[in-house]
Write a structure and sequence with these properties.
Layout (H helix, E strand, L loop, with lengths): L8 E2 L2 E2 L14 H29 L5 H7 L5 H4 L4 H6 L9 H19 L2 H4 L6 H29 L7 H25 L1 H8 L11 H22 L12 H13 L1 H13 L4 H13 L4 H7 L4 H15 L5 H28 L7 H32 L5 H30 L1 E2 L15 H9 L6 E3 L1 H27 L13
Antiparallel strand pairs: 1-2, 3-4
Length: 501
Amino acid sequence: MQRKSHMEQENGELTLEDAPKMSNWRKDRGNIILLTFLYVLQGIPLGLAGTIPIMLQGMGVSYKEQAVFSFVYWPFAIKLLWAPVVDSLYVRTFGRRKSWLLPSQYLIGIFMIMLSYNISGLLEGKINVPVLTVYFFALNLLAATQDIAVDGWALTMLSKDNVGFASTCNSIGQTAGYFIAFTVFMALESADFCNKYLRFTPSDTGIVDLAGFLYFWGILFLVVTTLVGLLKHERQENVSQNGVFVAYKQLYWITKLPAIRMYILGVLTAKIGFAAVDAVTGLKLIEGGIPRETIAFLALAAVPIQVVLPAVLSHFTTGPRPLDFFLNTYPVRLMFGLVFIVVVWWTPQVGEGGNFPLYYYAIVVSLFILHQVAVYAMFVAIMAFHAKISDPTIGGTYMTLLNTVSNLAAQWSSTMMLWFVDPFSYYSDCEGTSDTALGCYNAPQREECFKAGGHCTTYIDGYYIEVIITILLGILWIWLARPRMQRLQTLDDSAWSIPHV
């Protein structure tokens, strides 16, 4: 027998007690603040990992090497593999979520401190991208484990009528953490930016370096984790501790649900439509002459939108049809692919020696803000849908499955886009030099050609080919998937519930 959701009809009348409750965030104010801050901490390792590709692009690494480093984000795409362990093994007296949250954050802090003593050597001389990938993969592995615990805790920390705010906390917190570790750090690390805006006496270095930034946040992680462990008590859950085997069995039953299978198929293929724009555009702008710290600083203008928009949308995405925002915004985001093709082509035309006119930055910032509105509308909508359909008795596993699918959709497509930029591109041989051994196939070869006094001509840029292909695939996706995704929102709660196992 199907369960009736929201307002139930009995004998042709709607019962008042079954009407949807209006959310009242004030009664959960303290928990909302705590959840947001925990997501801020989660965004710090992600932001730090985001700075490395920007640095590598200025050091002449190839796009294939960038694709290798992109694997550092994969822990968030495969965390489902150990989510049932996090969800089922815990010390009851200590707390189901704190049993994993505190060790993960302690280890992140310790790992950051250790990495602060080694990062300078890894970025000097010959760049060893595989070693950098291993370091940051491990750091994000811990952050992903923390994410499993926080996602599950959010379902019980917040009252039922406020559970939709979990996506808002996630979006605002991760955005703030990523902004601090990416935009703020890149600005303070840049000698040019600090000399121009923050100093009276010029210097050859920025105010902070990566080693010092890692050390500071490592210490802060240790302090904050200790305070959370001592001051925040976890609500006791009426859930039996059945062990890892049962948790994986529950995961198996979740994936057996027809509604989940249809949803997974739709989400895994959705982000191919804008994968090239998301993965490659920023690197192409740097290649076109924009300083790396400027790329990070451009994001500053979008931060108010990123922070305010999720809170505004939460009033709508807590309703019965949160995926409508995702589906309605999808074509708009596809259109930005055509817009950014023009921007990437225009960038080297308008900038000479890295000097870009003010109107160029005004246009790029405006486009970036509009793009972020589309990105965050889709993100908040899909996170709200996850919170709406997840079974709180296995909340960590359920939420992690859904979020993992969303992350995996972005990661597999982004890695593939980075990997194929060079194969899809066609360059001339190194011209203007007598050394016939020099080539132009990848960034290091083009750098060697330039040092030898030669130049390379780009006949075909793989970025443009990728963007056009992905836009066409996105149009195909919205045509085929839209009616199926809309139908998923109309399903009863029982379609998302697993049998008792």
